[in-house]
Amino acid sequence: MIKLTPVERSALRAEAHGLKPIVLIGEAGLTANVLKEIALGLDSHGLIKVRVFGDDREARIAMYETICDQLKAAPVQHIGKLLVLYRPKVEAEKTRNSSGKGMREVTIVKASSTGTKRPSVTKVLLKGNERVTQGGNIKRAKARQKSTKKTVLG
């Protein structure tokens, strides 16, 4: 189980305030599939809310502790039937295209001029400094203007 400082816990509680529960634990209780879903949620989001349907407070506390122990997560908050859990996200290996470098493939869909024919669909490779306009045209980013003052003084 991860230990959090009170400041970290407070910041995570504030961040979790707007979240909706992504896992619901029903009358079957804490099953292997529920634990798997909670683990997937923690891997993808890092901070999640879990709603437990059941009136037994001791059972909810036991579930909370079990989840934190088995998934190596930090308990952030337990209010009523809501449990807030945190585990740092595992940084996935970034592919070349997702890092913003290199070429990326974009699909451009243009409606026909008359509106009665099928739209034309084309796949285009864009460089890092290119973008697709709303009309479906490709534009390059303009070079940044350089300050004359900086070049003279610097």
TrEMBL record:
Keyword Metal-binding: no
Pfam families to which the protein is assigned, alphabetical: CRS1_YhbY (PF01985)
UniProt keyword annotations, A-Z: RNA-binding
MF term (GO), any: RNA binding
SUPFAM superfamilies in the cross-refs: YhbY-like
Domain CRM residues, every copy: 2-98
Name of this protein: Ribosome assembly RNA-binding protein YhbY
Organismal lineage: Bacteria, Pseudomonadati, Pseudomonadota, Betaproteobacteria, Burkholderiales
